Amino acid sequence: MEELRRGAGPFFRAFCVTLALMGVVLSATLLLSRGQPTQQQVNQNMTVYIPEEQDRMNLLATISETEGSVPQVFVLYGFLPDRGQLALSLLPPKTVLHYWGTTLTLEEAWERGGTAYCAKVAAGGLGITIDHIAQLDAKGLEGIMDEVGLMDYDLPVSLDYPMGDRQVVMSKGNQQLDGRKIADILFYPAYEGGEQERSDRGVMLLCQLMSRLLPSVLEERGDRLVTAFLNNARTDLSFPDYEYSKQAAKFLARQDPTPVTAVYVEGRLSKDYQQFYLTEGCALRLCQMFGGGELPLGASFLESGG
Q: Fewest beta carbons within 10 Å, which of 16, 55, 95, 216?
């Protein structure tokens, strides 16, 4: 028995030393893992925004000289974060669309039921969804630009033409635009290329403005700009709508190059200048850009190039 005890002593001491060493190693491992998280842990704790189709939103905005007057500008605005795009298109007021078996222009739709009815006609005629509306006049545009500040803009052509009781005169070249000057460029009725050129120049101006404003959503200034818009427009949008979409807006604001995309119209005025007919290719492009699948059955447009 004594020999057995003497033999067990070295074994017991060796076992205790081994156990102690294992404890030291385990403790050190735990301390290191707490002080320096592994890459896997970091990745698990990160929140990454991934836009989805349900984050999309289309808006129709009308802009007129004075509150209650017929709009000179109809803007389709597409918020499409899942496609990495903000799309803008400026439809001529005399654009012909087919809605529930009726053919009418956007001007005629507005006279029947205001901007809300225009949104229904545009949505039905192009096979898209329009979620919200906004109405602006020149004074409201001035109020928004008071918060934005002056905008540098290279005006491609000179403007010199009477509009109402005013003579609009702007020189070709660099301009600093306030709300009144932006309205003058958008409303100008005497472009050589007629309504299609007015649409092209208007959408280019609005895209440049939107590209300038979009990064503001990454700062507190974005909240002030949204508030300025809500205070100066008649719209069914609200600040909670903006809060809901802010993550998607920030996602777009971080895109390089700018995600703001112009969708140009293509079509032809009637001989009496009272109707503007979109080409089928243009109508399909608008449909697909703003989230539609195909043009509505029964809708008729010009053949592209016609």
A: 16
User: What is d(CA 210, CA 208) in angstroms, rounded to the nearest whole number?
Assistant: 5
Query: What is the average per-residue pLDDT within 167-193?
Result: 97
Rounded to 5 degrees, what are φ and ψ at 200?
Answer: -60, -50
Would the pTM count as exceeding 0.85?
A: no
Per-residue pLDDT, averaged over 18-23, amounts to 45
Is 213 within 8 Å of 225 (Cβ atoms)? yes
45 pLDDT above the threshold of 60: no
Alpha helices in the chain (DSSP H): 2-35, 39-45, 106-126, 138-148, 179-187, 194-213, 221-232, 239-253, 280-289
Judge residue 70's burial from the number of C-beta atoms within 10 Å of its C-beta, 0-12 exposed, 13-18 middle, 19 or more buried: middle
What is the rounded distance in angstroms from the CA atom of residue 261 to the CA atom of residue 55?
18
Judge contact between 118 and 106, C-beta under 8 A. yes
Sign of CA dihedral 150, 221, 235, 93: positive
Is residue 245 within 8 A of residue 55, CB to CB? The reply is yes
Tell me the one-letter amino acid at 266.
Answer: E
* Residue 100, CA distances (Å) to 122, 292, 305 in order: 12, 17, 27
Q: Which amino acid is present at 26?
A: L
The average confidence (pLDDT) of the chain is 87
> In this predicted structure, what is the pLDDT of residue 68?
93
What's the CA gap between 109 and 5, in Å, rounded? 105
Which backbone phi and psi does 291 adopt, to 5 degrees?
95, 5
